[in-house]
Design a protein that fits this description.
Strand content: 15-25%
Strand order of the largest sheet: 1-5-6-12-11-10-7-9-8
Distance between the termini: 17 Å
Radius of gyration: 23 Å
Structural class: alpha+beta
Largest sheet: 9 strands, mixed
CATH superfamily of one domain: Bira Bifunctional Protein, Domain 2
CATH topology of one domain: BirA Bifunctional Protein, domain 2
Shape: globular
CATH architecture of one domain: 2-Layer Sandwich
Order of helices and strands: HEEHEEHEEHEHHHHHHHEHHEEEHEH
């Protein structure tokens, strides 16, 4: 579906405003190497991206967003500190998300600066809030880093914590795993039968009796997976109190100052989240210094858990009142991504995107 002239004009206006704010304009290829995104997100990314094959370059993806290629560019030869802006089409498959467009414009801003992360978070959020102020959107904030810190501090196996962290961005799967690890639900019948079978003989013997190995997994991988299932079943459940604290954290939604008070209360029993909570307090101070009305700013502890999974700290979004619309703008902090793509180097980074098509529709009363 072609981009409308109104959306294109709105994109140009926003792009010019970001350049005026001091961002260096950059461009990225529409076709991106699939290997990088698959390494970051696993095969799940295929359900959300358009994948094709190039005879010389191998498997490629139509650009699902700009952040990853901009981070790659900066980590390869960018100066510090740096601010970038961009404008262009992105492509997302939308089979299960209603009538949303699968090709649409994004305008974005990315900031790489290690001097004061709280001030950088506030700068990006305040810039977006000012640009979108005429639309009277509802702003929401969150912090994925608080949830990740709470998961890492659970008194359970590293394997369980890794699984929970991997599924932070898949709320239903995360909930199912937490309930199982906490002993709140009985194993599914098929899983129970499998565990009973595995308990009756060594995995190697069972595999030998099963006949030829069919599929992509090697025999040693199958044995290792079977042993992991047995080890997990033998480990005691996560303490009920710890699981309840995590439930309280996931359900937290309030104005930012009240949420901060609640998080400080939770930190008494979850000291591992103290550094992340202190970062949130510093961020609120920085936002207030930029004129943001933090006393009415919404905070949702689960915000950002259904986006591309590179955010690991502060997250934000701006929403219209019209039901069914995606966020008009969204963004957050992604420090860990720079370490993954930096080949041994890293730098704190935060950024966000605006959907100019939605901005244009809201201005014209079409959304």
């Amino acid at each position: 579906m072609p981009v409308s002239p109104a959306a294109r004009a709105e994109a140009e206006r926003l792009y010019a405003a970001l350049r005026a704010a001091g961002a260096l304009p950059v461009e990225t290829d529409i076709l991106q190497p699939a290997e990088v995104l698959l390494d970051l997100y696993g095969e799940d990314i295929r359900a959300r991206a358009y994948v094709t094959a190039d005879p010389l370059r191998g498997e490629m993806m139509l650009r699902p967003d700009f952040t990853v290629p901009v981070v790659q560019m900066h980590m390869a030869h960018g100066a510090e500190p740096a601010r970038y802006c961009y404008m262009g089409e992105v492509f997302r498959r939308q089979e299960h998300r209603g009538p949303r467009a699968s090709e649409y414009l994004q305008v974005g801003y990315e900031m790489f600066d290690r001097t004061d992360p709280a001030a950088a978070d506030a700068e990006v959020f305040a810039l977006f809030a000012d640009l979108l102020a005429p639309l009277a959107l509802r702003a929401a904030t969150g912090d994925i880093g608080i949830l990740m810190a709470a998961v890492r501090a659970l008194d359970t196996t590293d394997r369980r914590k890794a699984a929970l962290l991997r599924h932070v961005w898949r709320p239903r799967r995360f909930r199912a795993l937490l309930d199982r690890y906490a002993g709140r639900v009985a194993p599914a019948p098929a899983r129970a039968r499998l565990l009973e079978t595995l308990a009756g003989a060594a995995p190697e013997a069972l595999l030998a009796d099963a006949g030829p190995v069919i599929g992509l997994r090697a025999a040693d991988e199958i044995v290792a997976r079977a042993q992991a299932l047995l080890d997990d079943a033998a480990h005691p459940p996560i303490d009920a109190g710890q699981a309840e604290l995590l439930d309280d954290l996931l359900a937290l939604a309030d104005n930012a100052p009240a949420a901060l008070e609640r998080l400080e209360d939770l930190a008494v029993d979850m000291p591992a989240i103290v550094p992340a909570v202190e970062r949130m307090a510093a961020r609120l101070d920085a936002l207030a210094a930029r004129g943001v009305a933090v006393e009415t700013l919404a905070f949702e502890a689960s915000l950002g858990r259904t986006t591309l999974e590179y955010y690991d700290g502060f997250v934000f979004s701006f929403h219209a009142d019209a039901p069914g619309l995606p966020p008009v703008a969204s963004g957050g902090r992604y420090d860990a991504l720079t370490a993954v793509l930096g080949q041994g180097r890293s730098i704190p980074a935060v950024g966000g995107i605006i959907r100019p098509g939605l901005v244009a529709a809201l201005r014209e009363g079409r959304a």
